[in-house]
User: What shape does this take?
Amino acid sequence: MRRPRSWSTETRIKALLMAAAIGLTSLTVGTALTQGFLERVQEARILFDNTRSAAENLRADRTEVLLQTLAPSWREVSPGQSGEEIKSADGMVRRFSLDRTAILTALVYHQRYVLVVGLIGFLVAVELAVFLAYSLTRPMKILAWGCEQMRSGRWVRLPPLSRSPYELEALHEAFNEMVDNLQQWQDFQKEAARVERLAALGSVAAAVAHEVKNPLASMRIRLDLLRRGISPQDAEHLAVLGSEVDRLNQTVSQLLTYARPGTPLFGPVDPGEILTWTEQMTASSCRAANIRLLREVEADCPSLWGDAQQLKQVLLNLTLNAVSAQPGGGRVILRAFRHRNGIALSVTDEGTGIPAELLERIFDPFFTTRPEGTGLGLSIVHRIVGGHGGTVSVDTSPEGTTFTVILPATSAEQDKER
Ligand SMILES: Nc1ncnc2c1ncn2[C@@H]1O[C@H](COP(=O)(O)OP(=O)(O)O)[C@@H](O)[C@H]1O
Ligand SMILES: [Mg+2]
Assistant: This one.
């Protein structure tokens, strides 16, 4: 059974503040009215006493005008009713009683401005109560909303608070920090699961690749031997066979590079030299695809710290991808420049970009969208750069893609930075 919902904090604060406003207004107005009333009653009594003393020395027919001054505080009562007496010199007695209602009515009329101000004060207090209750409970409501979102598995950060009590601001900050930490932890778990999966896959792949590589080499030699003394038609078949064997060999080599990249041999590496080597290696592919390759090396770009062979492989893979991304031709720009975390090497193309839904998977081994692809190029890049303590990032749009690799500078450079 669902428990009936109790009053919300906002309603409680409103009720409390409004009760306080009503109490305060009634107290002020009440005190003012009571005091005024008592004063008027006292004045009426003094007037009565004075009138009585004056009337005692006058004849009844002369007292008329004098007695009229008692109104409206005093009302004459009919003979026989109780009241305070006024006796004239000739023994005539008239009785009067204090008219409290008339005194109060006159007082209210006289104090009408005070009452209006009191009413305005009350309305302002109510407005204030509503505003205060809203502004005090809003951060709590946002917090409750955030917790609800988290419970249903959506990561949300709370918007920054302004002009709220500092405890609530601290609570919001703590909530946001908690969300960040949880998210980081989840990312870390995902990455750990990925690394574990890849490690298992890698060792199987390495074993298979190793087994396949030797028979492939032997097949290649036999093919070359067979080529002698055969008809041109058979030679064509053999050429096709040969190129298929080469392709298999390339895949297997890539697989081995991926699975066993080997321990990097670290040393200072000139970024310009890596770009030049890549340019030379891809020159013919670029020409075939009608692509203009540009190289931009920042002046005095410092050396980086890494394994030159492995880093050449990284740039080669990225550049080949950039070439494949532009079947109709275009430009590919290789850059080397300083970055606050070390040295950056980037490859930019003018292809159609990578769809958002594929971005998460492009670094997975065997993920490819190309019929002739192996899906290992970027996995190798990721692994090598990771082994160097660097990072790879992708910036892609329908106008083109840039892969940026950031690697540590040489220790001499790092010392200089410090
Ligand atoms: N520069 C790029 N532009 C567009 N897509 C790219 C680019 N680089 C990589 N990709 C995508 O990432 C996938 C994986 O790349 P990669 O690991 O090198 O494998 P492969 O090149 O064998 O397909 C590619 O199939 C392609 O879909
Ligand atoms: Mg590739």
